[in-house]
Write a structure and sequence with these properties.
With 360 residues, this protein is of the alpha+beta class. It has 2 domains: 2-14 and 182-357, Phosphoribosyl-aminoimidazole Synthetase, Chain A, domain 2 (Alpha-Beta Complex), CATH 3.90.650.10; 50-172, 2-Layer Sandwich (60s Ribosomal Protein L30, Chain: A), CATH 3.30.1330. 29% of the residues lie in helices and 22% in strands. It contains 10 helices and 13 strands. Helix 3 packs parallel to helix 4. The longest helix is centred in the middle third of the chain and has 18 residues, at 127-144. It is globular. Residues 1-8 and 11-15 have low confidence and may be disordered.
C-alpha cells in the first residue's frame, strides 16, 4: 500500500519535510488561548427562570436543566471540506455532514437528537447547489431521526468566496436516562471503537494542501477503489445515532466520544483522572494509509489530526463487553471492536506507536 501515495496520482514531490496541520495555519494552541480570552470576558449570568446550565466544560455538548428536563445543545460546521465540494461541484455529501457533525456530538453525551437548524452563508445562492444540499440534509436527518426546524441563509459576497455551512442541534434525555459524561470511568473499563467512513469533516486543510503540493489528480482512483479519489474524500461523516441509542437503551455505556477534530485527544474531554490506553487500534487502511504514506507525518500528528479509522468510541465495564458488541451487531454495527482500556494515570496513550497526549 506504500505505493498509494504516488500510484499514478502525483506529478511531483515537494522537497520540504512533512507538512503538519499547524503548518497549514491551523494552530490549535492559539485557539485555546483565544477562547480563554473570550470566555474570560463573558461574565453575564442568566436568571434561574431561564434554566440552570450543567457544568460540563470542554465536553461535546452543552447541557441545560429546565425544570425536571435536561436539554443538550451543540453547534458545528463542515469546515474546509466545503472547498473540495466546491472544486468538484458535489454538495449532497456536505449536506449530510452538517447533520452528522452535530448529532454525533449530542450522542457523545448520551442525548437523543431532536432538532437541527442550519446556517448557510453564500456569495450568491445557486438553486441547484441548494437542492443538492437539501438532499444531503434529508439523508442525514433520516439517519439521525432528527427534525429540521429552521435555519438562516445569508448572502455575503464580501465575506465568503463560495459557501459556508454550519448547524446547531438540540437533543434531550428520554425519561429515565441520565447524561453520559465519562466521569465514572475507572481502571479496567474497556473501550470499543466504531469505524469511520473516511476523514469525516476533519483535517481537510492539510489534505487539500498535500493535494496541491503533490499535484494529485483527484479525478483518478486509488489502486484499492474504482471511485475517483475526490469522491472518496467527500464521503459523508458517519452518523452514530442508531448504534449509540441501542447501547443506551441497554444501559451499557459509561463513556461516549465522537472522534472529530483533535483525533484521539478527544478522549481527554471525558475524564482527566484516568489513562486511555489504545493498544488494539485497527491498522490504518484505505485513505488513512494513503495520507500516512503521502504526508510522511509521525504517528503523533496523524492521530491528533485524523480519526484514523475510528469515528466514535464507547466505554463500557469489562463484564459488559460481549453484551455491548452483541447489541452493536444487532443495530447493524458489525465492525465494532475493542480498541483499548482504562488504566490508572492520566492522558491518552498509544503504546504500540510510542504516542502520548496529556492535554486536549
Amino acid at each position: 500500500m506504500a505505493d498509494l501515495a504516488a500510484a499514478n496520482l502525483t506529478n511531483g514531490t515537494p522537497e520540504a519535510g512533512p507538512l503538519t496541520y499547524a503548518g497549514t495555519g491551523v494552530r490549535q494552541d492559539l485557539v485555546a488561548i483565544a477562547l480563554g480570552k473570550m470566555l474570560a470576558s463573558i461574565r453575564t449570568t442568566a436568571p434561574a427562570s431561564s434554566g440552570r446550565p450543567v457544568k460540563l466544560p470542554g465536553h461535546f455538548a452543552g447541557l441545560l436543566r429546565i425544570g425536571r428536563e435536561t436539554l443538550a445543545l451543540t453547534t458545528d460546521n463542515v469546515g474546509t471540506k466545503l472547498l473540495l465540494a466546491h472544486t468538484l461541484d458535489r454538495w449532497e455529501e456536505v449536506g449530510e455532514d452538517v447533520v452528522a457533525v452535530n448529532v454525533n456530538d449530542l450522542s457523545a453525551v448520551g442525548a437523543r437528537p431532536s432538532a437541527l437548524v442550519d446556517y448557510i452563508a453564500v456569495q450568491s445562492p445557486v438553486p441547484s447547489v441548494f437542492e443538492a444540499l437539501g438532499k444531503g440534509l434529508a439523508r442525514g436527518l433520516r439517519e439521525a431521526r432528527c427534525h429540521l426546524v429552521g435555519g438562516e441563509t445569508s448572502i455575503v459576497p464580501d465575506l465568503v468566496r463560495s459557501l459556508d455551512l454550519s448547524g446547531t442541534a438540540l437533543g434531550f434525555f428520554p425519561r429515565g436516562r441520565a447524561p453520559v459524561t465519562g466521569a465514572t470511568l475507572r481502571p479496567g473499563d474497556v473501550l470499543i471503537g466504531l469505524p469511520s467512513s473516511g476523514f469525516h469533516s476533519n483535517g481537510y486543510t492539510l489534505v487539500r494542501r498535500l493535494i496541491e503540493e503533490y499535484s494529485i489528480d483527484i479525478a483518478r482512483p486509488l489502486p484499492d477503489d474504482a471511485r475517483p479519489l475526490g469522491h472518496r474524500l467527500l464521503a459523508p461523516t458517519r452518523i452514530y445515532t442508531r448504534p449509540v441509542e441501542a447501547l443506551l437503551a441497554a444501559h451499557l455505556p459509561v463513556a461516549l466520544a465522537h472522534i472529530s477534530g483533535r483525533g484521539a485527544r478527544n478522549l481527554l474531554r471525558l475524564n482527566s483522572r484516568v489513562q486511555f490506553t489504545l493498544d488494539a487500534l485497527p491498522a490504518p487502511e484505505g485513505l488513512f494509509r494513503w495520507i500516512a504514506d503521502l504526508s510522511r507525518l509521525p504517528a503523533e500528528e496523524l492521530y491528533q489530526t485524523f480519526n484514523m479509522g475510528v469515528g466514535f468510541v464507547v466505554g463500557v465495564r469489562a463484564k459488559q463487553v460481549d453484551r455491548a458488541l452483541s447489541v452493536l451487531k444487532r443495530s447493524g454495527e458489525k465492525r465494532a471492536q475493542v480498541i483499548g482500556h482504562i488504566e490508572k494515570g492520566r492522558g491518552v496513550r498509544l503504546p504500540e506507536l510510542g504516542v502520548r497526549y496529556d492535554s486536549y
